[in-house]
Amino acid sequence: MTFGNTAYDGEAFVLTQHGEKLDCTTSELRLLRFLLQHRGQVISRSAIMEQLYDIDGEFFEDNTLSVYIKRLRQKLGEDGAYIETVRGMGYRFRK
Fold this sequence. Notes:
By secondary structure, this protein is an alpha+beta fold. It has helices spanning 26-37, 45-51, 62-76; strands spanning 2-3, 6-9, 14-17, 20-21, 42-44, 83-86, 90-93. It has a single domain (2-93), classed as Arc Repressor Mutant, subunit A, CATH 1.10.10.10. The protein contains three helices and seven strands, in the order ββββαβααββ. The strands form two sheets. It has a four-stranded antiparallel β-sheet, with no helix packed on it. Strands 5-7-6 form a three-stranded antiparallel β-sheet. The longest helix is centred in the last third of the chain and has 15 residues, at 62-76.
């Protein structure tokens, strides 16, 4: 899947920008994959947290999700704008 100058390879679980691999955590990539799978849809914070629990089975805390979103946007640079905050509702990955 591509957006802006970024490409996400779901099979290889790799995110690249301008052909260079971005250094992302597994959790950040799982979050991005989930947002991309629901592109254009507003997804509530609780729905995201239910889907994206860590390896030990512990659910994400609300603040943890905010941190992951912030870090992912920073790593994406200009393309971070594709991840929109829908105030009072959740997040949307714009088309």
